[in-house]
Write a structure and sequence with these properties.
288 residues; five-stranded parallel beta sheet; Rossmann fold; seven-stranded mixed beta sheet
Length: 288
């Protein structure tokens, strides 16, 4: 990609080395990273992108928004788009992947889709109020299946479901509380798929509860720090049969996540008008 420049806007105190390396591996020639980016200080960076090259060359500049705080990243993306000048085509393409939430969620749902028809699948998303969990639930809902979004408290699960219904009208999504061991069997009842997207080191689905789920076909654990979020799933599982259930661990999903991440970064330079959030990245991944 000749003379391509990726402006890496990170909301953290130090720019992510991971995101910078993946950008280079995606074929980007130059990566300019900025830390501590907020909606209040991003305007000059955006204008530096759009006023340095003519409209016919702006497809060779793009913006990647990262950092550990997804809500902060979303706010920066909104500000970035506000400061572009669309009528004059003074725009550059933008991708959001704070905390890897979008590309990880896409990879997980694509893994499930290899074994299940998502439009008829009943799913349980554990850790569903977190950034990855919400995006997993949103993608599953957009594919037409019935989704249970689990959280320790019903109020938090219900709030996340309202956000997803606003983004996906007609979404078949329901909140469930999974704060105690007695909640698990009811939440899992009738489910074909369970995806755990909780905090590192938290066991969200013990084996004794998982064994009550007689309809379960696929389980995906996105926790990369032991112990596993789904007890009995190994980090490296990639389509592994575990007691009659297809299992994926964080590393098993990670290979596809990296391919999707690289492909999405490369796609930024196909035009100067793309905005890649979770739905757009999912559509792009389907072509890989």
């Amino acid at each position: 990609m000749k003379d391509t420049i990726l402006i890496h806007l990170d909301t953290d105190a130090a720019p992510s080395a991971f995101d910078r390396i993946v950008a280079i591996d995606s074929g980007v020639q130059h990566v300019f990273s900025y830390s501590g980016v907020t909606p209040d200080n991003v305007m000059a960076l955006v204008h530096g992108c759009i006023f340095t090259r003519g409209p016919k060359d702006l497809h060779r500049t793009a913006i990647f928004v990262g950092g550990s705080d997804v809500a902060a990243g979303e706010a920066v993306v909104a500000a970035v788009r506000k400061h572009m000048i669309a009528p004059a085509r003074l725009t550059v393409s933008v991708m959001l992947d704070s905390n890897g939430a979008n590309t990880t969620a896409v990879a997980a749902v694509r893994a499930a889709n290899a074994y299940l028809t998502l439009g008829t699948t009943k799913s349980l998303v554990l850790g569903g109020t977190g950034p990855v969990g919400q995006r997993v639930a949103r993608l599953l809902a957009r594919n037409g299946g019935h989704v249970r979004l689990g959280s320790r408290t019903l109020d938090k699960a219900d709030a996340a479901c309202r956000v997803i219904r606003a983004a996906v009208p007609g979404a078949k999504i329901e909140p469930v509380a999974v704060g105690s061991s007695s909640d698990g069997p009811a939440a899992l009842m009738g489910c074909d798929l369970v995806i755990a997207a909780g905090a590192a080191g938290a066991v969200l689905l013990p084996r004794k509860i998982r064994d009550t789920a007689k309809t379960l076909k696929v389980m995906i654990d996105l926790n990369g720090v032991p112990p596993a979020g789904i007890e009995g799933v190994e980090l490296s599982d990639q389509g592994k049969d575990r007691d009659g259930v297809i299992a994926y661990g964080a590393l098993g999903v990670g290979g596809a996540k990296m391919k999707i991440h690289r492909a999405a970064v490369a796609a930024l330079f196909e035009s100067n008008e793309r905005v890649l959030d979770v739905d757009e990245i999912y559509a792009l991944a389907a072509a890989i």
